[in-house]
RNA sequence: GGUGCCGUAGCCAAGCGGUAAGGCAACGGUCUGCAAAACCGUUAUGCACCAGUUCAAAUCUGGUCGGCACCU
């Protein structure tokens, strides 16, 4: 068995201080940052996605940030492939790969080594299913899923149209059920020796205060202009138009809501999002939880050194 | 001082004699190709307070307190 690559993972909800900590750690470990953020991958839009600028990066190499045009689509499967390759290259260079981000699905999938179905979803198939849904409602579709894959259907609520449709799409296209796909997708062994740290204030209230402060900062940095650009291109900016930080301003651009109310709803949406992010991190195994008020860098460095995967 | 309206969960709010809708927030969770998305679960032995009428009161009556509006 070949030695697995040892990587450092810094995850955590939004506004928990991942970016600055990871940059300091990268300098001390001779590392390179690999972003695990579903929105920072897009070009432009740096304010709303809190992407660090060159001076903040302080010479540390960052990967998978701002490399995709907002018109393009992307998925977890693309992410796992790209990130795996990037990590491999960093390791070959003799540097430490540092995975940093808040997109739980991306991080989990990468660390578990999920092998997604080789068949790419076809847009016609999806449109057909959407049409069926519009015409007949969810019940017949959910029933269909129940008959082909009762096990997976049992875990889904019929209201979750997105997943019901996706499971049917997978089956119609490949003849494989979601249960089969899931069973085949996990390798016997995880692909990395991951040293996982989750940054999060112990007091939820403090997290929420940090979020509000950060939104105010973004406003000063020109978030509104960025949002305007997204608004004007909302038809073609498929994924970005649903990012938190832009869609909240759409009612303002349409003259339906005061700017200050939009800022409030942006703060609210971000708080809700942070809470959802935590459900991902809480269920990942072997996570070192740290409050950003602690001396994060020194604790992480010690933890990193203490993790001797060879002897396991 | 007088008259009228109002007081239901952290917030908004329905109910107007038959055993507390709903929304938001909060908290917990799901997640295998758009995931900053989508979805699920939990949350008032109690309706300002006291007394009364009634088999039964958040709902009716009287009083007390608090708020709002108008009048003097």
Summary tags:
312 residues, alpha/beta, Rossmann fold, Histone, subunit A, 2 domains, 14 helices, 52% helix, RNA-binding
Give an overview in words.
By secondary structure, this protein is α/β, with parallel strands linked by helices. The protein has 2 domains: 5-116 and 185-311, P-loop containing nucleotide triphosphate hydrolases (Rossmann fold, 3-Layer(aba) Sandwich); 124-184, Orthogonal Bundle (Histone, subunit A), CATH 1.10.20. Helices cover 52% and strands 10% of the residues. The chain has helices at 18-29, 54-57, 76-92, 104-112, 123-136, 138-148, 150-155, 161-174, 178-185, 204-220, 223-232, 250-253, 259-282, 296-306, and strands spanning 5-11, 31-35, 62-63, 96-101, 192-199, 287-290. It has a 6-stranded parallel β-sheet, sandwiched between helices. The radius of gyration is 21 Å and the shape is globular. The two termini are 14 Å apart. The model has no long low-confidence stretch (mean pLDDT 95). It binds one RNA strand of 72 nucleotides through helix 3, helix 4, helix 8, helix 9 and helix 13.
Please trace the helix and strand order, writing H or E for each element. Answer: EHEHEHEHHHHHHEHHHHEH
Q: Do you know the CATH topology of the largest domain?
A: Rossmann fold
Q: What percentage of residues falls in helices of 4 or more residues?
A: 40-55%
How many DSSP H or I helices? 14
- Based on CA atoms alone, the radius of gyration comes out at 21 Å
What spatial form do the alpha-carbon principal axes imply?
Answer: globular
CATH superfamily of the largest domain: P-loop containing nucleotide triphosphate hydrolases
Number of domains: 2
Mean pLDDT: 95
The CATH architecture classification of the largest domain is 3-Layer(aba) Sandwich
N-C termini distance: 14 Å
Strand percentage lies at 5-15%
Supply the CATH class of the largest domain.
Alpha Beta
Strand order of the largest sheet: 3-2-4-1-5-6
Per DSSP E runs of 2 or more residues, the count of β-strands stands at: 6
> Which residue ranges are poorly predicted, with pLDDT under 50 across at least 5 consecutive positions?
none
């Amino acid at each position: 068995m070949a030695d697995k690559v040892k990587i450092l993972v810094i995850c955590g909800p939004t506004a928990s201080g991942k970016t600055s900590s990871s940059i300091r750690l990268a300098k001390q470990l001779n590392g390179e940052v690999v972003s695990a953020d579903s929105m920072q991958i897009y070009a432009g839009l740096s304010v709303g996605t809190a992407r660090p600028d060159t001076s903040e990066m302080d010479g540390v190499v960052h990967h998978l940030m701002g490399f995709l045009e907002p018109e393009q689509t992307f998925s977890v499967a693309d992410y796992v492939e790209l990130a795996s390759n990037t990590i491999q290259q960093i390791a070959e260079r003799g540097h430490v790969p540092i995975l940093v981000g808040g997109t739980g699905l991306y991080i989990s999938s990468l660390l578990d080594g999920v092998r997604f179905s080789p068949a790419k979803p076809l847009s016609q198939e999806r449109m057909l299913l959407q049409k069926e849904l519009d015409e007949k409602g969810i019940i017949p579709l959910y029933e269909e899923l129940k008959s082909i894959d009762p096990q997976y259907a049992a875990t889904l609520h019929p209201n979750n149209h997105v997943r019901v449709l996706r499971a049917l799409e997978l089956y119609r296209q490949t003849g494989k059920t979601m249960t089969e796909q899931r069973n085949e997708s996990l390798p016997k062994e995880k692909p990395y020796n991951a040293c996982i740290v989750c940054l999060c204030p112990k007091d939820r209230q403090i997290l929420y205060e940090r979020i509000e402060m950060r939104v105010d900062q973004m406003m000063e940095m020109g978030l509104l202009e960025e949002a305007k650009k997204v608004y004007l291109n909302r038809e073609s900016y498929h994924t970005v138009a649903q990012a938190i930080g832009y869609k909240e301003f759409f009612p303002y651009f349409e003259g339906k809501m005061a700017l200050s109310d939009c800022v409030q709803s942006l703060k609210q949406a971000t708080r809700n999002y942070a809470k959802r992010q935590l459900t991902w991190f809480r269920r990942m195994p072997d996570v070192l939880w740290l409050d950003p008020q602690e001396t994060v860098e020194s604790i992480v460095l010690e933890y990193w050194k203490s993790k001797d995967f060879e002897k396991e």
